[in-house]
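Protein modeling request. Please complete all fields; requests missing the sequence field cannot be processed.
Requester role: graduate student
Desired output: 3D structure, token encoding
Chains: 1
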Amino acid sequence: MNDFIKSIKVILYDRLSSPLYGTFIVSFFLWNWKIWYVTFFVSESNLGYFPNSDAIIINKIDYIINNCSNWWTLLIYPVASTIFLLLIMPLPAIGAFNITLRFEKWMSDIRNKIEKDKLLTLEQSTKLRKYIMEQKDDFLKSLNSKDEEIKYLKTNNENLEKTSNSCKEKVELLEKERVELLGKVELLEKEKVEQLEKVELLEKENFEQLRKAEQLEKENFERLETFELLEKEKIPLKILAAFYASGRKSVDISDELNKRIQNNCINVKIDNSIKGDPDLKYEKMAFIVYRNNGEIFKKIIKENDFFTIDNKRREGSNLIQTISI
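Delivered output (325 residues):
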């Protein structure tokens, strides 16, 4: 409710403060003064009676409608008065204001001419000269102060330019270092990728070696099953299976080892002299399965170690010696 009242007040203020609305309202009140006079100051008993009736007293509303309301006084005359007051009346005022300004300028010109032709007295000349000298001294002091300020500002400007150039050089140096570091980072990234590729390649090679080792192990087990069938043969010492291998490549050295058995004993160094090098640059070992005194044994001998069987000292039954790689 308060907001509604405030909005009504704002609208009324805008309308009344406007020259057009204000002038129209004043003109309307002046042209229709009878309506306000009858409404507020005349009693209905003084208004008379209706025509052809002596008993019914006419009221204020009927009186105003019959005697005070017509288009001329309600609309046309107020609009015409508003136009006249807003458009025509200012013209004489503008002319009068122009004449006043011209008259004031004329008087000012006459006053200036008289004052210009008037000679100064000795005292006035002395005061004027003193005032001019003081103004000159003040001007020189101000000029010197401004010169010093200009020098100070130039010095500061030079220092700032030097500092700015130094900062620019540092920025350029840092930018170069940043570019170099980015190049190093890219190089390290490339090296990292290459290392990862090498690691993947090595992992693949290790996987292949493991796969081949498992395959060799399976073959060894198959050979063991075959050798167990020959267990009934009571040959004192015989190499049933022997492989000289690196995990990647291998050679069968069974025959070579059997040839080196003498007097039911063997003592041989496991190296490339037995049957050549199956895989250069890789460490190798011998996988040997042999039968001795009717029992099966299995040994793993590293490269350059000796494979020795001396039946003068009887080996324990079912002994399987395994040397870890």
